[in-house]
Amino acid sequence: MVLPEPGLPARVRIHEVGARDGLQNEKATVPTEVKAEFVHRLADAGLTTIEATSFVHPKWVPQLADAEALMPLLGDLDGVRLPVLVPNERGLDRALALGVREIAVFGSATESFAKANLNRTVDESLAMFEPVVAKARDAGASVRGYLSMCFGDPWEGAVPVDQVAGVAKRLADLGCDELSLGDTIGVATPGHVTALLTTLGEAGLPAARLAVHFHDTYGQALANTLAALRFGVTTVDASAGGLGGCPYAKSATGNLATEDLVWMLTGLGIDTGVDLARLTATSVWMAGHLGRPSPSRTVRALSHEE
Amino acid sequence: MVLPEPGLPARVRIHEVGARDGLQNEKATVPTEVKAEFVHRLADAGLTTIEATSFVHPKWVPQLADAEALMPLLGDLDGVRLPVLVPNERGLDRALALGVREIAVFGSATESFAKANLNRTVDESLAMFEPVVAKARDAGASVRGYLSMCFGDPWEGAVPVDQVAGVAKRLADLGCDELSLGDTIGVATPGHVTALLTTLGEAGLPAARLAVHFHDTYGQALANTLAALRFGVTTVDASAGGLGGCPYAKSATGNLATEDLVWMLTGLGIDTGVDLARLTATSVWMAGHLGRPSPSRTVRALSHEE
Q1: B228: which residues sit within 8 A by CB, 6+ positions away?
Q2: Separation between Cα atoms, residue B58 and residue A177, nearest integer Å
Q3: Which of B2, B191, B297 lies closest to A4 in CB terms?
Q4: Does the keyword field hold DNA damage (chains A, B) (predicted)?
Q5: Which of A36, A62, B193, B221 gets the highest tally of CB atoms within 10 A of its CB?
Q6: Given an 8 Å threshold on Cβ–Cβ distance, is B264 in contact with A192?
Q7: Is B150 exposed, middle or buried (0-12, 13-18, 19+ CB in 10 A)?
Q8: Which CATH superfamily, name and number, covers B13-303?
């Protein structure tokens, strides 16, 4: 039974982050061959944008130290975009050398997190991204800009929407094709989402250029997604099986689970192209490799794990 | 930072079901004194409607076999409503003898669940409720009618909104002051909620007379709640700490957790009167008695259990 609510989009593109954002925040390190199979299974399940890995220095993210080995194993998946995260020019050069055609940079809306995560001020981090974005675009690669801590920050509390819009505008002006608004600690609620999207629209950043990246730390991710969809956002980040804890809130629950998102969107009559049974089977399989059950409610319900 | 969305109510009344619906579906049986302390702690946390127990035959729900012993321990909590579930006239008489002033009956929108849960057809169960509701009202008690399987049914699949509206109308016409629409297996999505509420309104049942009772089995409960709030519903059922598994879906996750609900409502600037820190402490305390961690994401995040 398909019962859409008025004003919602007919189709949503899911930006799958499990292989990068998910695995980067799991304690267990997964063998390269398993990661490659994971990406292939995600593509088989119908996902068309699969963030594959990160070219950050292995010292900072040992879980993804095998980026160079992984990319050739992925091959050329027909119709599937395989963006990768790059922290700086050196990471970009490594990615471009492997034929990557889509990259992402990872910025912060707050000074505290910029300092904690990038060891730079917000100004310094934007200065670092500038040549990365320019070089990527010169090489014909499209660029996504992640903006973290868009709602709350563990050190600063609630983050003013004008502050977020200011940093978002500068990141967009560097040349990012898309901005992904991250609720890194999962504290946002739907009214806050609408307020931020309104402010961003007024700042010249329409919903069509934005993605939302919600964490389910406080169980709010789907309600927030619904608010964003109503506002016209059609790109939603999610992580298969809810992979990835939240390092900045002591909770096993981090990213919105792709399965929970697909359940809602399917019920709303919104096309995602995803085969939920295949995706759930993939998440159960990956949970076996990680040695912990999936935190996704839909995965648990459909797989009868408990 | 309070950022309400337009069209939402200023205040929501939470109908707390943890002590009844929650404990009735937990494996562990809690001592009567612990139940009494639980209800007192819920009241201390600011909840004003706390469903206390059920006067069903102990053979069917052994976890709540101590209803007669429990009620006198609760005393007269100032400003707090303490409804109880009654399955039939015998249960009603037991409750009224203890001074109960608010009762609930538990019906089904589908024949399959009426048969499985009540061993009656829908017609037969409504006939059973008729004298119960009449006698309760004669005694000055208010009556809530639960209607389960309002969205999906494990045997019948999706439940047509017209079928739900038909049973709901008959239950209301018996004299129920309020109807609580249950998504017993947690499969609903927001568009389905809006569609059902629309159909109920057309059938003469306005939002003011309705409550929603969502299960979080597939992670949809808060998104569904948001859809109901937009429609004008101002009474929302929830269970402290998410107590109560879901016996009809093999998942540890049943009722919407009150804490997750309060987090969303507070962020939306909607008054609930609930002190979230006190409520979370109560759920952590109860989880200790039950020997399993709370499935509430907000409880986990705030209590740093993991």
Answers
A1: B193, B197, B207, B212, B236
A2: 63
A3: B191
A4: no
A5: B221
A6: no
A7: buried
A8: Aldolase class I (3.20.20.70)
Residue B227, chain A, CB below 8 Å: the answer is yes
Closest chain B residue to the Cα of A219, Cα to Cα:
B297
Mean pLDDT across B137-162:
97
Query: If we measure between CA atoms, which residue out of B145, B26, B34, B150 comes closest to residue B86?
Result: B145
Task: List the 244-303 stretch of A: residues with Cβ below 8 A of B.
Answer: 249-253, 257, 260, 263-264, 266-269, 296-298, 300-301
Amino acid letter, A77? L
Task: State the pLDDT confidence band at B296, using cuts at 50, 70 and 90.
Answer: very high
Per-domain boundaries in chain B: 13-303
Identity at B292, one-letter amino acid code: R
Q: What is the DSSP letter of A48?
A: S
Residue B201 Cα, gap to closest chain A Cα (Å): 16
Residue B246 appears among annotated catalytic residues: yes
Rounded to whole angstroms, the Cα distance separating A228 from A199 reads: 13
Residue A87 DSSP SS3: coil
As a whole number of angstroms, the distance between CA B252 and CA A293 comes to 12
Instruction: Classify each residue of B199-227 as buried b or exposed e, where b means 16 or more C-beta atoms within 10 Å of its C-beta.
Output: bbeebebebebbbbbbbbbbbbbbbbbbb
Q: Which residue has the tokens 């799958």?
A: A16
CB contact under 8 A, B189 and A1: no
- Amino acid A92 reads L
A25 part of contact set with chain B, CB < 8 Å:
no
